[in-house]
C-alpha cells in the first residue's frame, strides 16, 4: 500500500506535472526558451525596480534639501517678524526706549527674519523679492519708531502703526504673504512624498516581474537536473537568491522611508499651524518650531539609507540580468552550441 501511494504521489507531484507540460519540447529549445524568457523578464524587472527606487530616492532628497527647509524657514521668518513687532511695542509700553541694550531683542528677531529669507532663497522657486522688500520697509519703520522719533510720541506712534500695517495688512502684508508662501511650499512638500498611481504601478510591475523571474529560474534548474543530469547551477542559484532579496529588501526599505517622509510632512503641517499663532505665546511657538524642525531633520536623514538601497538595487538588477545569462548561456554553449 505504501509503495502504491508513493508511486501515485510521484505521478501527481508538481515535478511530474511540470515534466509532463515540458515533455513536447526538445531540451535545447527548452533551455533557449528559458534563457530568452529570463532575459526579457529580468530586463522588465530591473527597469521597473530601478525607476521606482530612483523616484523614492529623488523625493527623499528633494524633501530633505529643499522643501522641508523652505517650510521651516518661512515659518521661522514669520514668527520672528511678529515677535519683533511685539518686542518693539513692549519697549514703548514700558518706556524703555533709549535705555542701553533695550532694543536688542527686537533687532535680533529682525535679523533672524532677514537671515531666514536669505537661507531659503535658493531652496524655493517662489519669488521672494516682494517679501524681502516688505521686510526691509517694515524693519525701517520699526527702527524709526523706536530710535529716531523716541522723543516725538506722535511720530513714533505713526511709525509703529505703519509697521503694524506693513506686517498684518490683509493679503498684502508681510505676515499674510509669508503665510501664503508657506502654504504653497507645504503643498510642494506633500506632492514630493506622495505615492502616485504610476509609482504604485511601477512597484507592482517590478514585484510581479521578479516573481515570474523566480519561477522561471526554478523551472530552468529543474530542467537542468531532470533532463541533463546536472547538479544545481551556481549561477542560477545565485540569481534566485538575488531575485528574492530584490523582491523584499528595496520594497521594505522604501516603505519604511516613505513612512518617515510622511511623518516629516506631518511635522511640517504642525510647524505651519504653529507659525500662524499670534499674541503673547510667540516665544513658545518659536521654540516649538525649532524642536519640530529638528524632528524633521532626523526623519529626512533616512535619505542617506534610501540612496544606499537605490544603489544596491541598481547593482542587483544588473546582476539578475547577467547571472541567468551566464548560467544558461555557458551550459548551452558547452552542451549544444559548440556541437553544431
Task: Describe this entry's structure for a reader.
The chain is mainly alpha-helical and 340 residues long. It has eleven helices and no strands. It has helices spanning 2-12, 14-22, 27-93, 104-120, 129-148, 153-168, 174-193, 197-227, 234-275, 282-300, 303-335. Helix 3 runs antiparallel to helix 4 and helix 8 (197-227) packs antiparallel against helix 9 (234-275). The longest helix is centred in the first third of the chain and has 67 residues, at 27-93. The radius of gyration is 33 Å and the shape is rod-shaped. Mean pLDDT is 81; it is low at 6-10.
Set out the fold topology.
Blueprint: H1 2-12, H2 14-22, H3 27-93, H4 104-120, H5 129-148, H6 153-168, H7 174-193, H8 197-227, H9 234-275, H10 282-300, H11 303-335
Record keyword descriptors for this entry:
single chain, mainly alpha, 11 helices, rod-shaped
Report the major sheet: none
* SSE-based structural type: mainly alpha
Taken from the alpha-carbon principal axes, the silhouette is rod-shaped
Oligomer: single chain
**In percent, how helical is the residue content?**
over 70%
Separation, N- and C-terminal Cα atoms = 49 Å
Give the uncertain stretches in residue-range form.
6-10
The arrangement of helices and strands along the chain is HHHHHHHHHHH
Count of extended strands: 0
Rg over CA atoms, rounded to whole Å, is 33 Å
Overall residue-averaged pLDDT value: 81
The percent range for strand residues is: under 5%
Number of helical stretches of at least 4 residues:
11
